[in-house]
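Hello again, I could really use a second opinion on something today. I've been staring at a protein lately and its backbone has me curious. Please have a think about how the structure follows from the sequence. I owe you a coffee for this, so here goes:
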Amino acid sequence: MKRIFVFLMLAFLVFACTATAPRLAPTDTLSSTPTPLATVTSAQSSTPVPSTASPATTAVAHSALTTQGPYLAYLRSQGGRYEIVFTDADGSGQEIIPYPADANTQVGLPSLSSTLSPDGKWLAYYTGSAGKCFGNGGADTADLALNLVNLANGKSQVVTRLLSHDYPKNFVQAAQQLDQETLSADVLQNAFVCGITQAIAWSGDGRYLAFAGQMDGLSSDLYLYDMLSQTITRLSSGPEELQIIAWSQDGRWILTWGSYAEGEGMVYDLYVTSLDGSDVHKLPVSSCDTTSWLDDQTCFSFESENGVGTYNLALVNIKTSQVVPVWAGEFSSLAVSADHQWLAYFSHLSSQALKTGSDPNFTPGLYLVNLRTFKSSRVALPGNLDDYQSLQPLGSAERGFGLLNTSENTLYFLSPDGNLSSAGVNASRFSLSPDRQYLVAIGQKIHFLEADGTFLRDVDLPAALMGQGIQTILWRPDASGLFFTYQAPQDASTQFYALDRSTGGPRLVDRTSILSLGPSDFVWVGMPK
């Protein structure tokens, strides 16, 4: 079945980074193998310094990191160059490291959550080329390689070259073996090029780097680099070109998405491989939302098509391949309660409507599903269904979910039994803290609440930040404060603010062009274990 998928891979990887790390020098190289990872010890962030100053509107003067972590890392573009920014959890200091100047950026930079090691020492990146996505190059560009750079001393090394000795002629043989009219050598090569620098992911403990390579076969396969032994192991071999790699929540399984062709209507096949490579099996579904694990081995699967959106929601066990259908119709804003007992989503079309275009017995609305019995019920929402959005799980049993009414700019709480109640605050954005104890809602003011709705404090927003420009909200790991991004309408720049939960107002910590503004584009590093 044809479909287009957007996988939001939110992997808050855990690694440590020293405050005195020198800036990276991309021209330095190492001839030796990487130093084995050191054990990450717990590091506590220093007490944030309260500030009541209004956010500045001028350029920010960056200082060195002032704490021992954790740090928030993100990619930005500055003066035509890419940079990695590490920011103290309280926004007090920053360390800016240039992205390797020889990095391959033809298909775009992979996310930091995929390429930045959990211990903070290593950045995986690509040099050379295998051609251009949707514009294949010739053999003279066949020098693509996977590299590691030590961010503490700026020295880099080649892990392995990624292409076969006869690249790109190997695709002619691959096409002959597949013997399908639509799968020419050019089509296969394009799928390979578009996926090869995006299919990469560190294990949660930082020991392994899973990546796609074509060193031993006609197509890209799954490889594993062991940081302790400095060895590379080939874990899978198949005819498809890898596009995405992700790890299971417990680190025992590696998920790979493969396809034969890239572009609209592309088809994914989803495989699961054990860490030692002894078990490789294809799942009977083509998606696994690795941002919403129900447990270590169970994720949500769905299908997606232009126009319809997402539909055919199911639970899939990646070890046993068991699939449990949940909802065959269209859905959006999927949210799982904190206790993993309840599911909530909006739906406008039933499965019958998807097939025939009519279903007189279906009523669009907000639905709750009991994940023990899989019985669903519709929540009675006052007003227009399309006015409600941003459905998110909360931490309270009585307030299992939060959602916004955009016509009123009001935050509502929803209990698992379908009771809807107003939080009594104006909001166009809201977010729950990592410990599920606090809630922030941003509208004309910044409102801090306890998770049960108890009011804590209001913070005035500077006039310059009024409106709908506030985007991503990022809590500190200890829930003592947060960051948020603001898209400035006058110059399209991104303003990055820090805010303490107990005292002070928002403080501008960066004003630049952040490459992406989704939550998965920001990575907390140096987390205590």
Observations:
- Residues 1-60 have pLDDT under 50 and may be disordered.
- The first strand starts at residue 71 and ends at 78.
- The chain is about 5% helix and 40% strand.
